[in-house]
Amino acid sequence: MKVLVVGGGGREHALIKKIKESEKVNSVACCPGNGGISYDAECYNVSATDIGGVVNLAKEIKADFVVVAPDDPLVAGMVDALNAEGFKTFGPTANAAIIEGSKVFSKNLMLKYNIPTADYRVFENPKDVIAYLEEKNEFPAVIKADGLALGKGVIIPETLDEAVAGVKEIMEDKIFGESGNHVVVEEFLTGPEVSVLAFTDGKCVKPMVSSMDHKRALDGDKGLNTGGMGTISPNPYYTEEVAKECMEKIFIPTIDAMNKEGRTFKGCLYFGLMITPKGPKVIEYNCRFGDPETQVVLPRLKTDIMDIFEAINNETLSELDIEWYDEACACVIMASGGYPKSYLKGVEITGLTDGQLDGVTVYHAGTAVKDGRLVTSGGRVLGVTALGNTLEDALKKSYSAVDKIKFENAHYRKDIGQKALNIKK
Ligand code: AMP
Ligand code: GLY
Q1: Which of 257, 300, 217 is nearest to 105 (CA)?
Q2: What is the pLDDT of residue 93?
Q3: Residue-wise burial string across 34-51, b where 16 or more C-beta atoms lie within 10 A, e elsewhere
Q4: How open is the CA angle 66-71-74, to the nearest 5 degrees?
């Protein structure tokens, strides 16, 4: 099989390395890919959001299977376009991807089908939002732009002034464009967060091993929200008891709800959960693999990933037994100093090939090859990942490798996994 992967970050690199392990696959292509991915797959300069361009590329290279990884092409209907041309695909169609594409849709779905989530109200007028927050006078408040916003559409103001400024940016200045036409104001929940990615063919749902993201830029969960600064798997807060409750009250009801709405979801459904004192609740749904969750989940997958993708495509997932390795996995993101704001690009990365540790895999996110040298090209640059018999062991290996990799102004968190280690003590 020839497999085409659409996207160009660390998540796509992890997908490609796993797909290459499949006995069914003899070549992998990627668009647009990145510097590191170009060592593992044939990269084509077609943007991940260019639906016509990707369909043409799939035809040109005669792809047998196309995996669409990022949220925006899924929400825009890339899978629909590929299916219409007869391609086998992995990823939801647009009418199902709306579960991530619109927070108003997902909140209304959860309310209608009694799926536990934070209480909320929807607004289309900035004045009404402010009047509501003023009257309620409960902070922190949670305000979310309706549509896609590069993972940055959520603000958690501590004061009314902060809320007013945030609402202005989202709804009047339109910093996320049309995504800010509506906002959802939510009840502020507390508790540890767990990410669960799940395979589903619309008939059954098979959760993958759990993980924990670290979203803030700085140690101790300080600083700005980012796409994710590191991950670990498993997540110790996701006990068997919690998993059982999530299956009964969240995972199966969500799949059923989407079917009842005529929006059958096939692909990877990402449940962003908070384990509150009143039980697990959904913080968000994503219609795709998480980044950097994928980087710690897929290394633990034992079953051939193409068997899973084909079973989902054929709607025979219930017949497949998906197996996982018991080892723990940790991923430390090395970012460009200044991320998620402004940062340098084009600086050389060294130490990647020399003296690397056994069992460490470096997934590339923002890298490019320029004149034969590997350079930075984005905010999140590398995901330094290791498996270990214990979480401690995996973290030790990742951080030893991080120490050897150098680029100007590199920034990484030094406390990935610490919270999980502390609760185990
Ligand atoms: P999201 O982009 O929806 O994952 O939100 C980003 C982060 O904001 C989440 O990972 C949570 O840490 C936080 N968050 C979102 N919704 C809530 C909520 N209702 N209560 C408390 N924190 C929240
Ligand atoms: N790591 C969070 C996300 O992929 O949205």
Answers
A1: 257
A2: 98
A3: bbbbbebbebbebebebb
A4: 50
- Distance CA(176)–CA(251), nearest Å, equals 29
To test ligand 1's pocket by mutation, which of 99, 100, 274 has the most ligand atoms within 8 angstroms of CB?
A: 274
What pLDDT does residue 330 have?
Answer: 98
SS3 content of the chain, % helix, strand, coil (to 5): 35, 25, 40
What are the Cα distances from residue 1, in Å, to 22, 27, 92, 247? Answer: 10, 7, 21, 34
Q: Which amino acid is at 111?
A: L
Residue 191: closest CA among 235, 254, 251, 133: 235
Q: Whose CA is nearest to atom 6 of ligand 1?
A: 154
Span from the CA of 294 to the centroid of ligand 2 (angstroms): 9
Tell me the DSSP string of 237-282.
T--HHHHHHHIIIIIHHHHHHHHHTT----EEEEEEEEEETTEEEE
The answer to whether the peptide bond before residue 140 is cis (omega within 30 degrees of 0) is yes
* C-alpha 101 to ligand 2 mean position (Å): 14
Q: What is the pLDDT of residue 150?
A: 78
Strand 2-7, strand 65-68: pairing: parallel
| Alpha carbon distance 287, 271 (integer Å) | 9
Whether the bond into 234 is cis, omega within 30 of 0: yes
Nearest listed ligand to the Cα of residue 333: 2
Phi-psi region of 189 (alpha: psi -120 to 50; beta: other; left: phi over 0): beta
Please tell me the predicted confidence (pLDDT) of residue 153: 87
CA dihedral sign of residues 331, 337, 343, 347: negative
Positions in the chain whose pLDDT score sits under 50: none
CA distance 347 to 358: 26
